[in-house]
């Protein structure tokens, strides 16, 4: 089946934390096909390039897809001003998400999300919670105002919240609470590059998967904007080979 | 409506082709539509050896445009011929190979490599890629160097050669005339304009390579001006490009002096850009009282 | 916050001035706000005699930009000094005169004419206007010609001379070095890029002059690149321009190498563009941890 | 008093003829100050240059200003999609309109409007109808589908409608009915340049005023984009000296 451009109808737009927007979109096909970690590639009128935004939740019964984004520049600012009833032009679900086939029953899984990397980790947590596994989540935010989804996580995982400035939960970086989380079988992480570097270094002997970001041109694998060197002296494209990679495979 | 155009080595069912570097080797966009609909496909640049390209970030957005400094990442000409060309050849479309290099010898090597295959119909000689530091850029800005590489490639290749001009020059007509004299079968213009964007928090260039090539609608007026100027003084055909995203844009390029066009950056915004333009072209031409693509070409002020 | 910058001949209360040709002689915009708020005003080009300019249409819109071919319409230098300068001098701001011409003699005539008045603080030597056919353009694209006219004007004038460079060249650094050697006190860059737009119903250029100068946000990446390149190799101050419409844009120009900036096309979209930018500048600089305009200049990679 | 940028609220948007939009905007100041023939200079987000659109009606009691425009390109297309409640950024009223001080009681006035030149002529007609004068209006349109404001004119003027293709009213150009309109003291005209050329040539011995169009940069008199040669070997700026000129003064 050929890939499509989707016109997704905006169902709801909410500010759920400082500079953080949750947007629910109607698109049954995408709501049914998505693997956690995949992203939508959104066209914002007036901007040359599409914006990649991870899928944070799907509701395949209602046919909806939820995204969360932080207002950082012109594109996300424009998107934040959308009203229910308007439509967003999207490609997706793009990329390869978190593969959970090798997660065995009874495993203890560490989930590490930082800032706007939390939403795809939530999507993954929901998916994993359908399996008989034990989930531990470490969620890092800049400060108290930026915290979101804590309760949602608490329902399905043992949850640690960390803020850089200590204004909420533990103080410091996500890695600072790794000593408290106990043993685990594999980990999954998404967040800013410095965080991922710290996480993969700290957990270098553990099996893990990380979701990465890079500035994109096409978002579909054609333009070579988003390449990442791999340990075998080759490269991968974040938009189409990733954004999720084995922590052992890539060079951060 | 008849959209066909005939160019040296190429009979195109329509004048629309994706621009080099903006369409890979077609694989990704073949998941969106049937590539047989395209007039031709211009492949990503080929160099002698595999290249990994520049560090990231490689792209940045600008007003009505973007900067890129991919750095000619490609698997090398042999693997392109072995793996990419056959897959593309399965479609009913023409194939144009984009030839790059950092030395005269490399250009000649890559160009002659394409003699091996019957499935490539023309070469686009990329003397203008602004993102290669080793010397590629001089070929595109010095008429004597441009002449030399054009002659050498013409001699080495048995395919028609379209020389892709850089807009980063004082006198585009001089460049066009130089490569025409050297035996170019056609021109391809324009490549990107060298630009830069800074990352405000650090005050440093946002793109790792510092400068990048500016493409997209922002540069269309420069492309139109250069094609128009060259068309007055040079008679070989021109594949026009630079900011095309609608059928009206295509008409403007044809009127200015292009004989076919390539669509680059627009593919990123709309993966269906090329076919959407092909679909809209007949009605657009009709609205402006043209009966075919050839009619536009025939009726422009200065005849080719 | 301290927004002051000191340049040869100019102590600017802030680094923002309207660009030549986009603000007339200030009269019209003085109906929107108090011109004393501006760092300086750069006047519309002055020539020896009155000029009526090109036929209309003289402007065309493009993606994130516009084309213009006004053709240096102005009342002539004597009437500018008699009628326009005194009115502008009533404001607490610096006045920069833009000097144009079609011959070396005309440049010298116009430049020396401004010796008559005490109210003009610097000259911007426009060797780059792409819309004058008689030869103005060569001064801006040939380093030797640029040197000659710069030396001649420096000799004739007792004001600091900022030479306004054309971006329509292969090598902007070479041009900048040439005029620096010839004694320029500063640079002003960039002028417009030569572009064209066609009128689809006729297939002819929309602007009567055929080509026009491209300005606006579309050209900002090219301006930033050129200023950055020149700043690495040339030490005289730069008045930067090309697509500025926000305080962030100003910061980017300062980081790239400009010491002050001019705002052109943005005035047309927003008549308050200059003062809106001045108002926003302190907070913008603060957001990026700068303490003053001079702090941005001092902290950029390469020191002037 | 300093000039301003106005945020005008959209009150109503209607398609009143083929490709012809009537838009009512709320802005009391402008509604009170406007002289017929003046224009608004409208910012349409996404476009570099503002769009000049004549004022067609004002209602100073309700504080509204009505404009009429034809959808010809991207800017007017975007404007046509505006919904009530949205705001339009406008400069104005710009330019010098139709001066009617020298119109004497009892005069017979010929009004000639073509296409989208009809609205400012309507505004003028309304203003003149407050004086004790006799009005004759000749309105030209491409074809029947494009005709608008006929009834409104009939209330205040002897009205002739002309269509190029004869699908409504008289067939031909506005000048074709000049023989029928009888004597008049002065005329006022607005429409496309070819029409104005024909009108001024036909009526070269009559006192008249014409409203002109040109592509604009600034719209306020600063950039010299919109100049027009005058008979005294000088020039005028359409945006600030005009758009209305004495027919004898300018060279069309
Ligand atoms: C695979 C992937 C998934 C992402 N998922 C999310 C998400 O779920 N929520 C969220 O808030 N953000 C996410 N991001 C980051 C998001 O794409 C950027 O924040 C957004 O594009 C910024 O757009 P802007 O116009 O607001 O900012 P601007 O800085 O004005 O954008 C300018 C250009 O830079 C690009 N850009 C800027 N920051 C980034 C970045 N961090 N990564 C990639 N491109 C960038 C933009 O896409 C645009 O092309 C994701 C990025 C990637 C690559
Ligand atoms: C003083 C004045 C009053 C006007 N009043 C009206 C009116 O009441 N109703 C109406 O429908 N139109 C009027 N026009 C014409 C109107 O300005 C244009 O139709 C409109 O700007 C087209 O914009 P666009 O984006 O749809 O078209 P595009 O063709 O995409 O516009 C591209 C550029 O060309 C300019 N342009 C295109 N056509 C014209 C034109 N005829 N005159 C001036 N600039 C043009 C645009 O402003 C823009 O800068 C008036 C023009 C002037 C000068
Ligand atoms: C991401 C990207 C990669 C490109 N790579 C190449 C290339 O490999 N060879 C080449 O000749 N041109 C390359 N170009 C230039 C385009 O082929 C085209 O000339 C230019 O982008 C102008 O067209 P556009 O405005 O439609 O994109 C590249 C452009 C982009 C945006
Ligand atoms: C309508 C118009 C008229 C101009 N006239 C002049 C001029 O007389 N002299 C000059 O040196 N530059 C002139 N310029 C160039 C501007 O000063 C400026 O260099 C250029 O527009 C880039 O800045 P911008 O993108 O902010 O407009 C003109 C530009 C425009 C748009
Ligand atoms: S963004 Fe184009 S290959 Fe990934
Ligand atoms: S539009 Fe600028 S002077 Fe009239």
From TrEMBL, chains A, D:
Keyword annotations: 2Fe-2S, Electron transport, FAD, Flavoprotein, Iron, Iron-sulfur, Metal-binding, Pyrimidine biosynthesis, Transport
Record text on subunit structure and interactions: Heterotetramer of 2 PyrK and 2 PyrD type B subunits.
GO BP terms in the entry: 'de novo' UMP biosynthetic process
Amino-acid positions noted as binding [2Fe-2S] cluster in the UniProt annotation, renumbered to this chain: 218, 223, 226, 239
Chain residues that bind FAD: 51-54, 75-76
Protein's name in the database: Dihydroorotate dehydrogenase B (NAD(+)), electron transfer subunit
Listed InterPro entries: Cbr1-like_FAD-bd_dom (IPR008333), Cyt_c3_hydrogenase_gsu (IPR012165), Dihydroorotate_DH_ele_sf (IPR037117), Dihydroorotate_DH_Fe-S-bd (IPR019480), Dihydroorotate_DHASE_ETsu (IPR023455), FAD-bd_FR_type (IPR017927), FNR_nucleotide-bd (IPR039261), PyrK_electron_transfer (IPR050353)
CDD domains reported in the protein's UniProt record: DHOD_e_trans
Family recorded in the similarity comment: Belongs to the PyrK family.
FAD-binding FR-type domain segment(s): 3-100
Organism, scientific name: Oceanobacillus oncorhynchi
Pathway(s) per entry: Pyrimidine metabolism; UMP biosynthesis via de novo pathway; orotate from (S)-dihydroorotate (NAD(+) route): step 1/1
Cross-referenced PANTHER family: DIHYDROOROTATE DEHYDROGENASE B (NAD(+)), ELECTRON TRANSFER SUBUNIT, DIHYDROOROTATE DEHYDROGENASE B (NAD(+)), ELECTRON TRANSFER SUBUNIT-RELATED
Essential cofactor(s): FAD; [2Fe-2S] cluster
Automatic annotation (TrEMBL), chains B, C:
Pathway stated in the Swiss-Prot or TrEMBL entry: Pyrimidine metabolism; UMP biosynthesis via de novo pathway; orotate from (S)-dihydroorotate (NAD(+) route): step 1/1
One Pfam family of this chain: DHO_dh
UniProt-listed Enzyme Commission number(s): 1.3.-.-
GO biological process: 'de novo' pyrimidine nucleobase biosynthetic process; 'de novo' UMP biosynthetic process
Positions annotated as active site in the UniProt record: 129
SUPFAM superfamilies assigned: FMN-linked oxidoreductases
GO MF annotation, one: dihydroorotate dehydrogenase (NAD+) activity
Residues at which substrate binds: 44, 68-72, 126, 191-192
Cofactor, how bound (note): Binds 1 FMN per subunit.
Catalysed transformations (reactions): (S)-dihydroorotate + A = orotate + AH2; (S)-dihydroorotate + NAD(+) = orotate + NADH + H(+)
NCBIfam families with a match to the protein in the record: PRK07259.1, pyrD_sub1_fam
Function: Catalyzes the conversion of dihydroorotate to orotate with NAD(+) as electron acceptor.
Entry's family note: Belongs to the dihydroorotate dehydrogenase family. Type 1 subfamily.
Quaternary context: Heterotetramer of 2 PyrK and 2 PyrD type B subunits.
Protein name per the record: Dihydroorotate dehydrogenase
Natural source organism: Oceanobacillus oncorhynchi
Designated gene of the protein: pyrD
